[in-house]
Write a structure and sequence with these properties.
Elements lengths: L9 H10 L3 H47 L1
């Protein structure tokens, strides 16, 4: 997987952390952080896959174009 810039909403997490005053709300916050990180990783993987497929397609097209030019 390539390195992609992932933007995290630190202000939102900071607010949620300040509101997590009991065990239940802290556990919900932990679950949210885990879930969102997993979603970010999945999206990064999908983006990486799309980039790889595009690069492969471009390479094929350019490869065919070069053969036709010769």
């Amino acid at each position: 997987m390539s390195q992609l810039d992932v933007v995290y909403d630190y202000q939102r997490y900071r607010q949620l952390l300040s509101e997590a005053v009991d065990e239940t709300s802290r556990l919900r916050l932990i679950d949210l952080l885990i879930t969102e990180k997993a979603r970010d990783r999945l999206e990064a993987q999908r983006t990486s896959d799309r980039v790889a497929m595009t690069a492969e397609t471009v390479a094929k097209v350019l490869g065919n174009h070069r053969r036709e030019s010769l």
